[in-house]
């Protein structure tokens, strides 16, 4: 029942007589490696982005999305771009079909186009301590985060980035106001005709945002971890990744993309058991001839579909139905 009440935006309508194949999942040892993930052609993905653009959403898309969380009749889950598919082709997996329905409208619940920050929480910290991570590591990250909060309010541009990162003032577009003030040549604090020192609204806005972030850090242990990201999980349909490996290419706004390489820690909320935290190997830059050489799946975690068990199924018993997974480089631990 909850599937029918998911908040979505209209995407595109597929022809009623169009055949949408329901393919079997990749399974092994009763473990489903493609649970909740289907494929979509690049052309149809562009149509979806264009359709969302009518409501102004594509103004936020600084890159072409590689994955969408969708609802279509009785099907749900994630669609990842497959460059080999043509025209309006779409392929679903058996795990995505929950009930039969004649509807062929693709409705979009979420577009995965950006890498979100990685935050610790109380449960993850307890599990990592149980696994032998010293408490000094977390205290050091907390102190570093507190210093960053204080430093982030020294200029309007820093304040805008701080608000966006922590989701403060989003409904009122306060970060956009700060960026406009920067473009006008105004500065926060200091001396001179361009300095803004006496505006009570600005001071209160910044103070409330700082207090909110510090309060979350104090009561929920919501501590950011640098060089770590929260990305959506998808599956390697080409079966080219070795077991227990991932491919992740992160692209941040106004920065060059980079591929993560080496041993990384990966988890998903809620973490309730030490097994909900796993180590996997990121392959880094894809080798020549790899299917990821031309389609990088920016800001997604591509999981291997080989091996004895699916890694996502180890993380809080999760599937890949729009699940955002947290991963961090091993050098933090």
Descriptive account of the structure:
The protein is α+β, with helices and mostly antiparallel strands and 333 residues long. The protein has three domains: 12-112, Barwin-like endoglucanases; 124-220, no CATH class; 226-327, Barwin-like endoglucanases (Beta Barrel). It has six helices and 19 strands. The protein has helices spanning 42-53, 122-130, 135-151, 156-166, 174-183, 200-220; strands at residues 9-13, 22-23, 27-28, 31-32, 37-40, 67-72, 75-81, 90-93, 105-112, 116-119, 187-188, 195-196, 224-235, 245-250, 258-259, 261-267, 277-283, 300-303, 324-329. The strands form four sheets. The chain has a seven-stranded mixed β-sheet, covered by helices on one side. It has a six-stranded mixed β-barrel with strand order 13-18-14-17-16-19. A two-stranded antiparallel ribbon has the order 3-4. A hairpin with a 7-residue loop joins strand 14 (245-250) and strand 15. Helix 4 (156-166) packs antiparallel against helix 5. It is globular, with a radius of gyration of 22 Å. The two termini are 42 Å apart. The mean pLDDT is 85.
């Amino acid at each position: 029942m909850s599937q029918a009440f998911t908040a979505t935006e209209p995407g595109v309508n597929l022809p009623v007589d169009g055949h949408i194949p329901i393919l079997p999942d990749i399974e092994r040892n009763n473990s489903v490696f493609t649970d909740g993930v289907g494929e979509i052609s690049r052309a149809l993905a562009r149509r979806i982005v264009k359709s969302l653009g009518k409501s102004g959403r594509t103004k936020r898309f600084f890159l072409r999305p590689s994955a969408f969380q969708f609802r279509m009749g009785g099907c749900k889950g994630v669609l990842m771009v497959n460059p080999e598919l043509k025209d309006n082709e779409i392929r679903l997996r058996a795990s995505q079909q929950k009930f039969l329905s004649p509807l062929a409208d693709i409705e979009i619940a979420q577009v995965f186009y950006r890498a979100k920050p990685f935050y610790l929480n109380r449960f993850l910290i307890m599990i990592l301590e149980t696994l032998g991570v010293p408490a000094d590591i977390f205290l050091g990250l907390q102190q570093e985060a507190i210093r960053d909060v204080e430093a982030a309010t020294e200029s309007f541009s820093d304040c805008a980035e701080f608000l966006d990162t922590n989701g403060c003032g989003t409904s009122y577009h306060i970060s956009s106001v700060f960026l406009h003030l920067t473009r006008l040549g105004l500065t926060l604090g200091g001396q001179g005709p361009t300095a803004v020192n006496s505006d009570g609204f600005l001071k209160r806005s910044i103070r409330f945002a700082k207090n909110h972030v510090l309060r979350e850090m104090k009561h929920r242990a919501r501590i950011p971890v640098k060089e770590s990201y929260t990305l959506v999980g998808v599956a390697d349909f080409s079966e080219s990744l070795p077991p227990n490996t991932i491919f992740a290419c992160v692209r941040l706004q106004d920065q060059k993309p980079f591929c993560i390489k080496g041993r990384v820690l990966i988890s998903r909320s809620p973490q309730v058991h030490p097994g909900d935290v796993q180590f996997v190997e990121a392959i880094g830059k894809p080798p020549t001839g790899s299917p990821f050489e031309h389609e990088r799946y920016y800001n997604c975690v591509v999981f291997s579909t080989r091996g004895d068990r699916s890694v996502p199924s180890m993380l809080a018993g999760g599937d890949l139905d729009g699940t955002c997974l947290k991963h961090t480089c091993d050098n933090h631990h």
